[in-house]
Amino acid sequence: MDDAWVKRDRDVVWHGFTQMAAYADGAPVVVERAEGHELIDVDGRRYLDAISSLWVNTMGHRVPELDQAVRDQLDRVAHSTMLGNGNRVVIELAEALAEVVPVDGPHFLFCSDGASAVEQALKIAFQFWTNQGVTGRTAYLAFGGAYHGDTLGALSVGAGGFGTDVFDPLRFPVVRAPGFAEPAWCDRAVELIGEHAASLAAVVIEPLVQGAAGMQLAEPHQVRAIADACRAHDVLLVVDEVATGFGRTGTLFATDQCRVRPDLLCIGKGITGGYLPMAATVASQRVFDAFLGPDLSEKTLYHGHSYSGNALAAAVALRHLRLLEERDVLANVCDRAVELAARLAAEVAPHPAVGEIRQRGLMVGIELAPPADDLRWGRRVCAAAVERGVLLRPLGDVVVVMPPLTITGPEIDRIVTVLRSAIDEVCGP
Ligand SMILES: *Cc1c(COP(=O)(O)O)cnc(C)c1O
Description:
This protein is α/β, with parallel strands linked by helices. Helix content is 36%, strand content 17%.
């Protein structure tokens, strides 16, 4: 890597979740451009983007149709405010999304990041009750291992870890159910919902996969059991599809596999195919209606972000939604997921350094089993893969494989072959 760029980077840019004193030593990739599924660095080296640029990319980079959608929108308007006014392409996007989201009578409050979509959902759930004169519904139930973003509200419903424990004094308390990795987590959560119903504004859950927990899996009937408990006790259900949405698990939304209709849905990451920051909180008709009242009344939702409903992002999101269908991307997710599972089972799972492989669609966590705590196998295996031209990033000792949804068979081979030789190099053959 061209050290000059790394030095210039380190001197002025602060990277998230990164110890900047060690940044330059980690051989960071400085990207200049991309082609399809490959990122190209400032030295012209190519890397298969096997984490989809941290889970946001769906169809690769520089997709001609998506590039064109941005260019066309530039000739109209890049951005105008959603506060009290509308924008044509945002209306068109919301109409298109309304046809496919698993929410009854959906209404879209746009923002720019998944964390903001979760914050909005938490505030909406809280005010939903106060708007109806219901008191005491001020708590949330969330799960062990949960991740919902890094702003303070999202961090509070999240389970912590990743070095964020320092913020514990700032977190508001929640009713904490066991995570998907715990036995009988679902039964216990259903019990807790019953016990705490009178104080719960909402339950917040990642459907089918707790991504940041290292791809911990739930079954569709378990998600449905949580939803049923919410319904039975009149607690709102917030489903966080920021990671699972837009095809990742083989259906457009993971919720589609659970036959669940949440009151609030959070979407983000893949919504623009990985092009531009956009996220949204989707409220059901019932939730939305609870905010209707006289102008300037207390029933109004006093919340909004400057770049909410950005027109460039909306244009690319709209084109992306159509393109997922035109290219039958979900079928590719299902076919490649089967292939990836078979290749991993044959070549990676038998390695003695590998503990467990967890996969749903094209979300995969390969849990390494280091004999001691401080070996940093996850980090080192991913670094060895990057050296071999496959960009990976771990969650602790879980190697995450999240390829673009349009990944091909030969590229799956490349990922698995490189991963196996990276594990051999770091952990021994
Ligand atoms: C990434 C993620 C978020 C946060 O989204 P940002 O855009 O990074 O703020 C929230 N929830 C889940 C499940 C996520 O994976």
